[in-house]
Design a protein that fits this description.
By secondary structure, this protein is of the alpha+beta class. The chain folds into four domains: 78-113; 116-218, Serine Threonine Protein Phosphatase 5, Tetratricopeptide repeat (Alpha Horseshoe); 227-301, Immunoglobulin-like; 310-384, Immunoglobulin-like. It is 40% helix and 20% strand. The strands form six sheets. Strands 4-11-10-7-8 form a five-stranded mixed beta sheet, with no helix packed on it. A five-stranded mixed beta sheet has the order 13-19-18-15-16, with no helix packed on it. Strands 12-14-17 form a three-stranded antiparallel beta sheet, with no helix packed on it. It is rod-shaped, with a radius of gyration of 69 Å. The termini are far apart. The model is unreliable at 27-34 (pLDDT under 50).
Length: 386
């Protein structure tokens, strides 16, 4: 190397030129030919290097087109992590949501399955839709949850809608024993028995209650109690008793206190004579063959003494012959004596006017009516002196 100032040769590593003392400025000692040669060599190397680089770039591009990049840059890695976290979060959230929804559904179903009101709402809904099988299932579940009269009546109605009278009848009969004064039960049972023409069961059913409102349901089948046109009691003259009942009903009665259903059919008024006492029991029978409640009354006609007979003349003093006449009511008999004794049915019977005997005599008379009742003794004093 030479000094740039004076051209002296510089030792390797010198900082200053030992000849001129100037700061060493290195100047290459090659000539222009060397420089051109070197330039050509460098250019050739650069071209070769460029070609090699171009070749590598082309090969790399081919690989990139056929094979995806496997080595992402740092920012891409961070982005991928965020995406993965979001995906994981979304999946976990979805799982939790599904679990929550499932738990809510289970809870709701459990609550509904144990809710009487819900079961009845569903039963009514399916009934309105005509799906009686489902309505039955929900009604039965409601009854399991609560011993409800409403649910049982609803179930009975479902049986009837499905034409299952036997099941409905069994359920209603059980309910009748449990709910003795529930009008809805009796109404449904009456309808079933009527359709089956089982009027005997209607009568038995009517005997299971004393509730007046419920008994009104049987008015079509069971007649009311008959009535007497005379008040029971004691009378002093012959009596004619009529028995009254509803139309289209037959009346049966007895006069000896026995069951009127085993008695005779009423056709004419019952006659009660003096001295008789009758206990009349009567019951009306409907066209369905069912008897209503019976009426009972005791009637008595007391035996009344008849009045004493009317005698003409009834006594006195006489000087001429006389006939004594007696008025005898129809059905009655007059007995008499002249010896002062009280007459009896064995005494002389009056049949025609009596000739007045001479002297002072007493005529004794009694009247016996058609019922055997005797009047008081009538005594008449006749003094006949010719």
């Amino acid at each position: 190397m030479k000094c740039a100032n004076c051209g002296a040769e510089l030792k390797v590593g010198s900082v200053y030129c030992y000849f001129c003392g100037k700061e060493a400025q290195i100047v290459s000692d090659y000539n222009l030919l060397e420089d051109d040669f070197l330039r050509d060599v460098l250019k050739e190397k650069e071209e070769k290097a460029a070609k090699e680089a171009d070749k590598k770039i082309i090969e790399k591009e081919k690989k990139e087109k056929s094979v995806p990049k496997t080595t992402p840059n740092p920012s891409a890695k961070k982005g991928n992590r965020r995406v993965k976290k979001r995906i994981i979060f979304a999946v976990v959230s979805m799982i939790l949501l599904v679990v929550l929804v499932t738990a809510i559904i289970i809870l709701v179903n459990h609550s509904r399955a144990n809710s009487y009101d819900y079961q009845m709402e569903q039963a009514v809904k399916f009934k309105d839709e005509g799906n009686y099988r489902e309505a039955e299932n929900y009604a039965k579940r409601a009854i399991e949850l609560e011993d409800s009269l409403t649910a049982k009546l609803f179930l009975a109605d479902i049986y009837l809608l499905r034409g299952e009278e036997k099941q409905a009848l069994e359920l209603l009969q059980q309910m009748c024993a449990e709910y003795k004064d529930e009008e809805g039960i009796y109404r449904r049972l009456i309808d079933i028995y009527d359709e089956q023409k089982d009027y005997a069961s209607i009568r038995v059913l009517s005997e299971m209650t004393v509730n007046e409102k419920i008994l009104e349901l049987f008015s079509k089948y069971i007649p009311e109690m008959p009535e007497f046109d005379q008040e029971p009691g004691v009378y002093t003259e012959a009596l004619s008793i009529r028995i009254l009942a509803e139309m289209d009903c037959d009346i049966y009665y007895t006069t000896d206190g026995t069951d009127p259903r085993q008695g005779q059919k009423y056709l004419n008024p019952v006659e009660l004579l003096p001295g008789q006492t009758l206990t009349i029991r009567a019951a009306a029978c409907s066209q369905y063959g069912l008897y209503g409640p019976e009426a009972e009354g005791s009637f008595q006609v007391e035996l009344k003494k008849p009045a004493v007979p009317i005698v003409i003349p009834s006594g006195g003093n006489f000087s001429a012959p006389q006939n004594i006449s007696v008025r005898v009511p129809e059905g009655c008999i007059v007995y008499y004596t002249w010896d002062g004794k009280d007459p009896t049915s064995a005494s002389e019977k009056y049949t025609e006017p009596i000739a007045m005997p001479e002297g002072n005599n007493i005529l004794s008379l009694i009247l016996v009516d058609q019922y055997g009742m005797r009047s008081d003794v009538l005594r008449c004093n006749y003094i006949y002196l010719p």
